[in-house]
Amino acid sequence: xxxxxxxxxxxxxxxxxxxxxxxxxxxxxxxxxxxxxxxxxxxxxxxxxxxxxxxxxxxxxxxxxxxxxxxxxxxxxxxxxxxxxxxxxxxxxxxxxxxxxxxxxxxxxxxxxxxxxxxxxxxxxxxxxxxxxxxxxxxxxxxxxxxxxxxxxxxxxxxxxxxxxxxxxxxxxxxxxxxxxxxxxxxxxxxxxxxxxxxxxxxxxxxxxxxxxxxxxxxxxxxxxxxxxxxxxxxxxxxxxxxxxxxxx
Length: 249
Prior knowledge:
Leu-rich_rpt_Cys-con_subtyp; Protein AMN1 homolog; LRR_dom_sf
């Protein structure tokens, strides 16, 4: 059984490598949920047709991402860290990921604090089908990342850059770019450099926006809470001054 394999990975390494893709997918899911995938064993379970990797509970680094070179069909990767910062993932690994996986749709890097703009730039240039990007608490992320996403990723509909160093210029570049008509969800909480200009830019440029969080931004005064929006969707706004959701129709 698969559970037996996970308990004796080194013993059955050769057998695991020869498993068919559908069985490997089940093994990947099981091992991921138990935090068992590592830099050392990820190559044994990967296969060229893998489409999703949820590695948020796994202790991996750039070395694991460098082994994705044959995973051209990968569409989703989750490297979020739920509690502590993840230190092993840097822009080097993200660049390798971007070059290997051109059909990536969803990339989540919450609390991967060593990722910088160069990694996001590689994603934006090479993975133009991106729909969901999570850069929350990636403290090295600045305006260049948002500009690159806005210029290259027209299918982007959900983006999280909360607790980063972005400014109004970066947000404006994002929401006035190719993805402006598709953006539905933006998280920019606890961004100390953002002002009402960023809030108004989102509400003005994104007609489909319906989840918009910006609480904890000390320079946002709150005067944009009732900014006009032409959206045909309900809009959920969370502002630092209200600390609760306001629903507009």
